[in-house]
Design brief:
The complex is a heterodimer of chains A (119) and B (398).
Chain A lengths: L1 H6 L5 H7 L3 H27 L3 H17 L3 H13 L6 H27 L1
Helix pairs in contact in A: 3-4, 3-6, 4-5, 5-6
Chain B lengths: L5 E6 L3 H11 L5 E6 L2 H11 L3 E5 L7 H11 L4 E6 L4 H9 L4 E4 L4 H33 L10 H13 L6 E4 L6 H10 L8 E5 L5 H9 L16 H4 L4 E5 L6 H13 L1 E2 L8 E2 L3 E6 L3 H6 L5 H7 L2 E4 L10 H16 L5 E2 L1 H8 L6 H15 L4 E2 L13
Parallel strand pairs in B: 1-2, 1-3, 3-4, 4-5, 6-11, 6-12, 7-8, 8-11, 13-14
Antiparallel strand pairs in B: 9-10
Helix pairs in contact in B: 13-15
Chain lengths: 119, 398
Amino acid sequence: MTSEKKKQLIDLSYLEATFGNNPLAISKVLDSFLSNTPQLMDNLFSNAKNSNWEEVKMIAHKMKSSFKMIGALQIANALEEIEHLSLSKTNEPKVFLSIKEVHALGKKVCSEVEEKLND
Amino acid sequence: MKKHLIKILMVDDDDIFSLLVKEAVKSEENIEFLSVSTANEFFDKLLIFNPDIAVIDYNLPDKNGLEVLSELKKSNETIIPIVLSGQIEVKVVLEAYKNGAQRYIMKNENVTIELMQNIKEINKNIRIRRELEAIRDNVIQQNHQYKNIIGESAAIKNVFRLMQKVENINMPILITGKNGTGKELIAQALHYNSNRKRKPFIAINIAAIPEDLIESELFGHEKGAFTGANGKRIGKFEEANKGTLFLDEIGEMNLGLQTKLLRVLQEKSLTRLGGNKNIELTCRVITATNKNLWEEVQEGRFREDLYFRLQGFIIKVPTLSERENDIILLAKYFVEAFCKKQQIPIKEISAAAIKDMMNYSWPGNVRELKSMMERAVLINESLRIQPEDLMFLEQRVY
């Protein structure tokens, strides 16, 4: 059980603190996250493949706060790093690796969010 | 009483964050919230939605948040902008404030708390501003078409005709007349019937301010300008920004200050005491005096060049005896107003009292009349004011 707890990528305490006793509001935020994030993840990946680093930077910037809000700090920090590394062409390989990692983790995060919604 | 709605328009391409703010704002009463994702949508909604507060994200897909801020400030100065950003660089923060941001909030884990705190504070300030605007609108309404000046006589109607000619002309006006004739009322009526009516009306009586303080009072001072000047202070000229500055008893101004005033009127700019920065003069200047200013010029007590500068247009206010048709009208007005204020039945004025009032010279003019009627209301123990309730000058015991 302890190892399962450790696998949790999200932490909704920020949303719970913000919205107090309002599960409906939290659900709306999670719903919105699920509606937008998979597409953004795909866009991030495809733009990185095509070396559109300006787009990569913008998408990473846009996504990081959403992941912070649901407590997915590992990914949020990775996105912040991607945002900064995208500024320099010499970082391309490193950025691409980070994006692949984020893409994979992102799917897990979305599953966890979906589970929370179904709870 | 209906509470005022505060409208917030937010532009942020992060849908989740916008949703978070929308939900947080729901907890506040009287807030209408709308969010858009792009700068173009923001400007489309701006006119229709007409927000009080604009929340602007620094990174937008079609425009930089500071550009949005700058364009917003040019189109509407009354909307209060808050900038949200993940940028922590000092120069970005400074740029935001330079471009007119009222608040700059970091997008960190406390962002919604900080945003809500700022919105509540701004909300309070907006409510105060609206209350002041309502008070000002009330004053404008009271002064509309010179309603605040009671009179039907030919003499006062002539004054109204002159006032109408200069309501919206930006030239110095000199109002002359004996004490108690209502010079300040005339100045107020000129202001509140002009296109400056929504700007400040600042009145200052030159004779009432000590000589060593009057210069600072009018022109302001910088910190350290003199002993006791512990901070910067703006003067009446600046306070009357784009409005009207009324200088009563201009004839009492000392020669040194007259020189400075002349320079200000000529150059249309001023400097604060102890300062060297030129500040543009944007107010209209109306002056008043009970003296014969030309006599003062001839006696060497008033500058000739200032005299000619001030009397761009002269309005002479008649004495009460020159508008005797208004005496009873005014008397009845003051009796009614005072009775209402004291919450007592409105008293009439007997024919005998009217006769005495019409035979009196009224050296104190309208001010004396008002004071006499209020006293008569208090003294009289019936519903009709009698001659014995009136106290003319010769009857006063010193």
